[in-house]
Each structure stands twice: as C-alpha cells, then as structure tokens.
Amino acid sequence: MLILGELLLLCTDTEHPKILITGGLGQLGVGLAKLLRRKFGKNNVILSDIRKPPNHVYHDGPFIFSDILDSKNLREIVVNNNISWLIHYSAVLSAVGENNVALAKEVNITGLHNILDIATDHGLRVFVPSTIGAFGPSSPRNPTPELCVQRPRTIYGVSKVHAELMGEYYHHRYGLDFRCLRYPGIISANSNPGGGTTDYAVQIFHTAVKTGCFECNLRSDTLLPMMYIDDCLRATLEFMEAPADSLLSRTYNISAMSFTPHDLVQEMQKVLPELKVTYNVDPVLQAIADGWPMVLEDIAARRDWGWKHEFDLSELVQTMLTHITTSNQRAQAN
Ligand SMILES: NC(=O)c1ccc[n+]([C@@H]2O[C@H](COP(=O)([O-])OP(=O)(O)OC[C@H]3O[C@@H](n4cnc5c(N)ncnc54)[C@H](O)[C@@H]3O)[C@@H](O)[C@H]2O)c1
Ligand SMILES: C[C@@H](O)[C@H](N)C(=O)O
C-alpha cells in the first residue's frame, strides 16, 4: 500500500509537465526556467543549449547539451526524460541572421523541422516563439493585427513565418499541440540580447548607468513594440497552461507598449537627468526596423486566454534602472 508521501509524490509527478527548453542560455531561457521551476519543481524543467552555462545556471537545476540540428540526440533527450512540454527557444535573431543567412536557415528552419517532428511523434505540447519580425513593410504597421499580409524582408522573419505556418499545419494535419506567441522586443536587466534589431533598448540601460551616455544605432523616431521580460515569460506560462479549447488560434500577438528611442531617453532622463544620447544610425538595422510593426494589436490574446501586461514604459524604466544599479553596487562591494 502507498503511504501518503508516496501518493503525493506520484500526484505531483503526473500533474506537472516535464519541460525541455532549447536554446536556454539566451536572453530569455534562464528566466523562463526559473519561473517554470518555481511552478513545477526544479527537476521538472531541463535547460539545454550548445554553450557551456555559467556556474550559477549550472547549479540552479538540470542542464544538458542539446544541438537542435542533431535530431537523434534531441529524440533521445525527449524519450529518456519523459518530456511533455517543449519550449523551443533556439534561434538566430534578426541582426545576426542578416550577417549569416546560411546559419539562420539551418537553425531556424531545419532545427524547427526537427522540433516539430519529434514533438508530433511523442505527443508533446510545443511552444515556438515568433516575433514582430514576422511582419514586413507591406503589413499594416500601426496597428498590426493578428491576421494580415506577412512578407518580411529578413531571413529571421521569413523563418518565423515558416515556423508559424508549419506549426499550424502540423496542428491541423496531425493534431500537434502547437502554441506560438509573437513577442515584441524584450527588455531584460540580467541577461543580454542575442543580436537583434531591438537590442539598443537593453544596452542603453547598462551603458547609461555605467557612463552617463549612449550612442543609439536606430533613428530617434523609430517606433517599435517592446515588453519587459517578466511580462513576456508570464505570458508564455499562462499561454502554455491555457485550455486547448479556449485557443481559437495557435499563433497570437502579445503587446505591452511601443516607444521610440526618443521616448525612452525622455523617460530615463527623469531618473538620470545628465544622460546624453547621440545617434549613429546603422542602415541595415534601420531598414529592418522600418519594416516592422510600430504597434502590435493583441485583442485575440486578451479575449481568448486573458492576456494582460503589467509593465508600461515608466514602470519598465524604473525597474530596469533599479535592477542594474543594485547589481552594479553588489558587484562593486564584492
Ligand atoms: N529576445 C527578444 O527580444 C525576442 C523577441 C521576439 C522573439 N524572440 C524569440 O524568442 C526565442 C529566444 O530568444 P532569445 O532572445 O533568448 O535568443 P538568443 O539569441 O539570446 O538565444 C538563442 C540561443 O539559441 C542557442 N542556439 C543557437 N544554435 C543552436 C543550436 N543549433 N542548438 C541549440 N541551441 C542553439 C544559442 O546558443 C543561444 O543561447 C527565439 O526564438 C527568438 O526568436 C525573442
Ligand atoms: C524582435 C526580436 O525578434 C528580436 N529582439 C530582434 O530584434 O531580432
């Protein structure tokens, strides 16, 4: 006969998903693992990547090497660990992709095919983030609805539209539980962006606190959708937990705020009045940003699964500056 403790353990094991995060050492994966581990237990969330993790990540919970281009190894990991949710974060982002189209094609397209096949074969729930970069200059830009023309001009955007369509196809054709959110540019204090067009909005905080000045590589009037990382990760968890029958779509826009570099600088100057910002526009990044949404419409996510953002521009700025100042002071004290 099972004693109560064993029974509780069995219940917890069966109730909680067993989660694998690919590409987990980028800007978003470590934070997501922390959130999911708090909810589902440390050992139920495996972080993976092709890079060596820093010590604190290695000691925080299970970490393994996984190259999404090695489909046999990926399959073994899913089977051996009884994975039920797959969060597919591996990707080559917009700026890096334009510098290495072959790599972006391999990771973002071939890698995605491996993920979808394995997820389908093993009945997994799979999350693949898309992006504002999945839209292009011929999409309506202010606001950009869920369903509209999508003709992106970057390999990153093309590969993300491909991911949206392939995932939805596998859902309709094979019943795959595919879930996809189009993230805005994500702003975080404790992790660095991986080479995208929206990176300025993270770098400005670190450089401003350290040096009091910043050189921005986008024009001061470039309006783009952005979101604080806590909102992004919470949205991902809530969307993964949403009952399948509430999801009228498998790909949703999520939105929090839109701002230009000028707006951001003005808000930061309320706390750092001496901040000096100059502009040295990168024509490649500017062309990408000029084809992306200015404002993302997310009515469907709010209606179907109750999406609600918490951070607006002023909260974002206060939170980022507090985090960065505190961790710089801690580093100096050590
Ligand atoms: N950060 C954002 O602003 C943002 C916005 C929209 C969408 N997204 C999407 O969210 C996901 C996570 O974004 P991020 O900012 O953390 O990305 P990132 O660039 O910071 O990290 C991507 C990770 O993928 C890993 N990777 C590369 N090739 C791999 C391979 N062959 N096998 C396994 N891992 C590999 C890299 O080592 C890296 O750690 C991506 O799919 C991205 O497109 C991010
Ligand atoms: C927007 C998003 O996909 C990423 N931060 C990029 O700029 O490429």
Automatic annotation (TrEMBL):
CDD domains: TDH_SDR_e. It is an enzyme of class 1 (oxidoreductase). It comes from the Eukaryota. GO terms for biological process: L-threonine catabolic process. GO terms for molecular function: L-threonine 3-dehydrogenase activity. Pathway: Amino-acid degradation; L-threonine degradation via oxydo-reductase pathway; glycine from L-threonine: step 1/2. Its EC number is 1.1.1.103. This is L-threonine 3-dehydrogenase, mitochondrial. The lineage of its organism: Eukaryota, Metazoa, Chordata, Craniata, Vertebrata.
